[in-house]
Amino acid sequence: MMVWRQPCYILILAVGTAACGDGRPQQNTPSRTPAGQAAAEGAVPFPADPAEPHLANLQKLTHGGENAEAYFSADGSQLIFQAHRPGVTQCDQIFTMGVDGRNVRMVSTGKGRTTCSYFFPSGDRILYSSTHLVDEACPPPPDYSKGYVWALYPYDIFVARPDGSDLHRLTDSPGYDAEATMSKDGSRIVFTSDRDGDLEIYSMKPDGSDLRRLTHEPGYDGGPFYSADGTKIVYRAYHPETAEALADYRALLQEHLIRPTVLEIYVMDADGSNKRQLTHAGAASFAPYFFPDAKRIIFSSNMHDPQGRNFDLYMINVDGSGLERVTRHPDFDGFPMFSPDGSKLVFASNRGAEQPGFTNVFIADWVDDAPPGSLD
Question: 127 near 189, Cβ under 8 Å?
Fold first, then answer.
């Protein structure tokens, strides 16, 4: 099965988890057991691959189900992520855990479908998107008779305390508001919305005020993250280049769908100016994240696979030079994020899956001065 995932999105091309609003069919398994009982807790060592010299001391943090989009707290001690764990959740919900894989706790409501979670830099709040106000049940899968598509579910963005209490709705625009992340100084939230009739990137203050639209090109712009200094935003985009492709995109958008077969990585200034396309692979490149020095970007792509089935991690300079392949495992690797000090990399992978389609969260020490590898 092909999985990628993502609006925050996973490519459901061989993965199992549905990150930030992908179109993966959901299993409606009743939630009757406390979060964390579906799988063992705690990090376990995972065999190193000599072909992946940037990754040392690789450890597997989750052990079953579909876990992805794990993002560090500002102090580097915790991760927030989304997961679907049969027997625990009906569909994707938000969890937190320590960087040692322990103290797994569900912090979303357990209702509807959630995606794209993130810690406030202050550590006293979290944000994520959820459909639970529209319907407490899992939303239905998209219509795959139209090909491989993502569903744009009616998400709104919410903020809560780290334990999930004191939940407040931040957006109330009909349609899709998701893929939200935050600047390191806590002054701005950046997210994706279809509120103006297209999938564009917006920013706002943490209380939802001072809304600003940052992108205006026809097509999909999403998955945004700020650089550590808050001056730049990296994102993924699909801008149809022919009238036929644009008509297809707009027709699907009217049905709250998107076909994510080609995505390129872009960078822009935090105010939406100075947009630059970094990749030109004609592939599905997604989940970009800045290195702490803001001079490089790490992302996931299937550019090496002619069949488009496997995703690996890549790194590239902010000027588009120096493309380097980071992972080489035959299973999916995606959703990379560096710890605040740049010493560790967390990512999601199908490697070592307990069952086909299971996705787990991994963490590794980052070896920056490893010899560069080929792109093959």
Answer: yes
